[in-house]
């Protein structure tokens, strides 16, 4: 009986302590904004000195492609394929059963339908060796199209 009461008291104290911790944590996180102080890492950075990009510069959209794109939404597979191409991989279209097969260096396999669709829209171009490379229009699509997951 005494053990049960002691266990209940410890549980209640633990819950109260956890609740106070969460309350103080929430209050502490919002206090710099309330006081008008910005944290050092949240101040805006000058665009000319800071650019986040994980792709090599030659795989950034040039900004010169004009006209509307033929699609506004990319499927996830199309997006994944264009991202691989953006990072310098040569794209090959293969049947679904062969997607997991090893590929030559700097080559990525994607489904035949996905590659055909991207080629039809002008996002990929034939490299003359049975593979495909991303076009400026494809880089534009990565910038402006939304992705359906």
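Q: What amino acid sequence fits the structure above?
A:
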């Amino acid at each position: 009986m005494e053990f049960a009461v002691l266990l209940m008291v410890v549980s209640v104290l633990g819950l109260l302590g956890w609740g106070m911790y969460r309350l103080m944590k929430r209050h502490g996180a919002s206090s710099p904004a309330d006081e008008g102080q910005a944290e050092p890492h949240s101040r805006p950075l000058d665009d000319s000195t800071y650019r986040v990009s994980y792709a090599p510069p030659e795989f950034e959209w040039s900004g010169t492609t004009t006209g509307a794109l033929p699609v506004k939404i990319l499927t996830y597979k199309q997006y994944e394929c264009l991202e691989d191409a953006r990072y310098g991989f040569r794209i090959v279209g293969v049947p679904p059963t062969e997607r997991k097969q090893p590929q030559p260096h700097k080559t990525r396999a994607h489904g035949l339908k996905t590659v055909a669709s991207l080629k039809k829209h002008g996002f990929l171009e034939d490299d003359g060796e049975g593979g495909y490379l991303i076009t400026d229009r494809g880089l534009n699509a990565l910038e402006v199209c939304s992705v359906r997951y």
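Q: And what stands out in the fold?
A: Confidence is low (pLDDT under 50) at residues 31-40, 45-53.
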